[in-house]
Amino acid sequence: MTSRPAPRVHPAWGMLVLVLLGLLTAQGTRIAFGAFIPAWEDDLEVGRGTISLVGTASFLIYGLTQPLVGQLSARYGARAVLSSGVVIAGLGLAASSQATNVGALAALYGLLASLGFSAASGVTAGLVVSQWFTARRGVAFSFVESGFGAGQFVFVPLSLMLIDAYGWSTTLAVEGALLMLVVGPLIAVLLRSRPADKGLEPYGGPAPESSEEQKKGGTGREVLRSRVLWALLTPYFVCGVTTTGLIDTHLVPLAHDHGNSTALTGTTVSLLAAANIAGILASGPLSDRYNCARILAVLYAARSLTLVFLAVAPYDGWLVAFGLLFGLVDFATVTPTHIIATRHFPPAALGLVFGLLSMGHQVGSAVGSYVPGLLHDLTGSYTTTLIGCAAALLGATIVCVAGLPAKSGAAPAEPALASRAN
């Protein structure tokens, strides 16, 4: 009996495409929150501070539910959680299109849609990668995490265009329908949480047995007592403060404060998103080859310098230069952070670990969204915030150097072609 030829492309890569689609659409619509603020201010007759509180609440709901998402994904499978999350996010967006006051918007977007965003997050994506890949995990992580940057690149300008042409209500309804009726069902039908569900082995062959060190860190109590967890979580909190919180929320008003035109500001945001994708994709091969703790230290130190640069020269071509430089070190920290976690903790604990890391990042995002606005009201500028965040990033750099394990080096080599069929 002749055996069927092995496929040249392992199905793991197809799973990554599905996860990327989920993150791109769900997280892209979430990141586009700022595009709706001016229209909500006009139609709902509320101030920017009130609308910003809806965004802060969304960050907190998203972040505080991440450990639960990790536990549910580990128990019921990433496919069920991811597809359900996309559908719930779509339902929340569609329902938000009918909001007539800020209270309804807070309940429908800040709570319902945010629960969906939480489930369709990097936690579920990370579990798919950890199950389907034993080699080239850095490349796989960076591929799916590029969905955040790609979503920003696609949905922010798309939302602005649709709002201008059809209004915010129709825009939310269209984006909600896309998630609820197309992307969510597609993921539910085609994605598999683990290769065993298709009778396959992971890309790279069977996972090696957990080391004695990993086995000791498998319970929830042991995870919380782990020095490595806190050495990852502390910088990741600062990461959330300085990226999704500070820059994604406040870069546009900061640019306007210094007299930059809307066209120049839009160009800066677009280039930042494009550089973000490039930085994420580059971080994958680097994380597979080099020490991830050192990579994180370099990224946080470089980001600190970019914030000082922004504080000194927040205008004209310098603003564009900042967008490019910051984008390269923006979400590039995600892959090495996840790689260190997969090498230190056993597979059974990764749902909790990824959830805790994401929670720290999102709580940091909530702080970074609210506090800079408060300080701006008190001081009249963002300079204090930028210098303070630059100092916090230097602290994160020190934690990465001193607190993370020395053995955060290269991953296993890429498997031979025959192994890819397994």
Order of helices and strands: HHHHHHHHHHHHHHHHHHH
What profile does the largest beta sheet have? none
**Please, how many helices?**
19
How helix-rich are the residues, as a percent range?
A: over 70%
Average of the residue pLDDT scores? 85
Count the beta strands: 0
Rounded to the nearest angstrom, the radius of gyration is: 21 Å
Task: Describe what you observe in this structure.
This protein is mainly α. It has 19 helices and no strands. Helix 1 runs antiparallel to helix 9 (168-190) and helix 8 (137-166) runs antiparallel to helix 9. The model is unreliable at 1-6 and 410-422 (pLDDT under 50).
For this entry, give a set of tags:
disordered C terminus; about 0% strand; globular; disordered N terminus; about 425 residues; 19 helices; single chain; about 80% helix; mainly alpha
Brief account:
The chain has 422 residues and is an all-alpha fold.
Summarize the topology:
Elements: H1 11-31, H2 33-44, H3 48-64, H4 66-76, H5 78-96, H6 102-119, H7 122-132, H8 137-166, H9 168-190, H10 212-215, H11 220-225, H12 227-257, H13 262-289, H14 292-312, H15 316-328, H16 334-344, H17 350-379, H18 383-403, H19 417-420
